[in-house]
Design goal:
- The protein is α+β, with helices and mostly antiparallel strands and 122 residues long.
- Helix content is 44%, strand content 20%.
- It has one domain: Roll (CBS-domain).
- It contains four helices and five strands; from the N terminus they run E-E-H-H-E-H-E-E-H.
- The strands form two sheets. A three-stranded mixed sheet has the order 3-4-5. The protein has a two-stranded antiparallel sheet with strand order 1-2.
- A hairpin with a 5-residue loop joins strand 1 and strand 2.
- The longest helix has 30 residues.
């Protein structure tokens, strides 16, 4: 059996706003230690201030905040109304970085090839 693809999930209020993030590890811990019968998930996570990103934000600043807070997944919000539009995981950022590095390497090869070709060197 394959594990679920995500390790954390946003908790959304009745207005579609992210109020907290919770993980599978949180659910396991609460299962093992006992869930307070008089608390909802929202109440259990009420003191959490989730780190969020915005759909128009540059990736670099989001990556910096994720690294500083050792956060693996961040909800992405629409700035105009704060509604959830997506999630970004650390692995997503690593894929973008790997793609940029690959493109830069390809560009360097092409530049070297053109330089050799224009000078007639072999």
């Amino acid at each position: 059996m394959r594990p679920p693809p995500h390790k954390s999930y946003p908790l959304i209020d009745g207005y579609g706003r992210v109020v907290a993030m919770f993980s599978r590890a949180d659910a396991l811990r609460w299962t093992m230690s006992g869930w307070p019968a008089d608390k909802s998930l929202g109440e259990q996570l009420a003191d959490q201030e989730p780190v969020v990103g915005y759909e128009d934000e540059l990736v670099g600043s989001l990556a910096d905040r994720m690294a500083a807070g050792d956060i693996g997944r961040v909800p992405i919000l629409r700035r105009i109304d704060g509604r959830l539009v997506g999630l970004v995981a650390r692995r997503d950022l690593l894929r973008v970085r790997a793609n940029v590095v690959r493109q830069e390497r390809d560009r360097e090869i092409l530049i070297r090839f053109r330089a050799v070709r224009s000078t007639g060197e072999r």
